[in-house]
Amino acid sequence: xxxxxxxxxxxxxxxxxxxxxxxxxxxxxxxxxxxxxxxxxxxxxxxxxxxxxxxxxxxxxxxxxxxxxxxxxxxxxxxxxxxxxxxxxxxxxxxxxxxxxxxxxxxxxxxxxxxxxxxxx
Length: 121
Description:
Layout: H1 12-18, H2 21-30, E1 35-36, H3 37-41, H4 48-61, E2 64-69, E3 72-77, H5 79-109, H6 113-116
Antiparallel strand pairs: 1-3, 2-3
């Protein structure tokens, strides 16, 4: 019997950060390269203060790193956290694909005789 194993607690802040569309938009922008907080805030319909709060969540999750030089804070994407989440999701996907494959094999082996001969019901 399969045992339930909860995801590692380190994934909780990552999925929390990814749950918000504004934060996902910031991450999408950062896939193009580093950006200042002001650049990240430009397309968003929120105050700079709100953007900074969202960035704090992204930093806490490990998805974003920031560096302040003078008055400019530059943000960069840290893909290691995304890789951890991707690995966990892929492990679940592979497990379910195996289960569905076994179910398909079982159903193919247990077809009623008239279905196996191509008859209609």
